[in-house]
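Memo to structure team: turn this sequence into C-alpha cells by end of day. - J.P.
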Amino acid sequence: MEESNNITSKNIVYCAQSLDGYIAGPNGEIDWLDTIPNPEGQDMGYTALMNEVDAIVMGRNTFDLVKSFDIEWPYAKPVVVLSHSMETAPTDFKDKILLEKGGVQEVLSRLHDVGYHKLYIDGGLTIQQFLSADAIDELRITTLPVLLGKGIKLFAELDKRLWFDHVKTDVFLGQLVQSWYIRKRG
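Reply from structure team:
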C-alpha cells in the first residue's frame, strides 16, 4: 500500500479462476463462472469490495465483455478503462467510463490526483500489467472446481518474485474457495 499525504492507496484484485489458473476459456468465454448453483444470491464479498473502493480499473477487453452482457451497466462506481486504441468512449458509455492510457505508474498518479486511491483492478492483461509493475496490494481470488485446460491465464511471467501474506480463506456454496492475500513489502 502506497501512502502519500496521509492518504492510503490500495489496488485490489478480485477475480475468479479455474483450478488450472484460467480466468476465461480460449475464446474469452466465462460461462463456466455460473455453473455452481447460487439460489440465495451470495455475493462472496463483492458488495463489501465495492464499498471499499473508489473506482474500478479495467482493460479494454474486459470493458468490451461487460458491455456485451444483456444487462444494465452493473457499476455504481467510476470505471476507468485502460486502452491505447480507443480515443473516445462509445456514445452509450460517455457518462459511465473514463479512458486512460499510459504506464501503470503514470495512470495511478493521474487517478490519485483526482481522488481515486482505492482501486479494484479487473481484467487479465490489466492485472498482469499491475503485477509486473508491483502495483497490486491485495489479491482476492476465488477458485472454481473446474479444469479448463486452456484459455486466458490469470498470471503471466514476472521479472521478480512477489511475496504475499495469506489473510484468510473462505468457502462459498460448498464449492468456491476464496483466498485473500496481502502484498508483503519491505
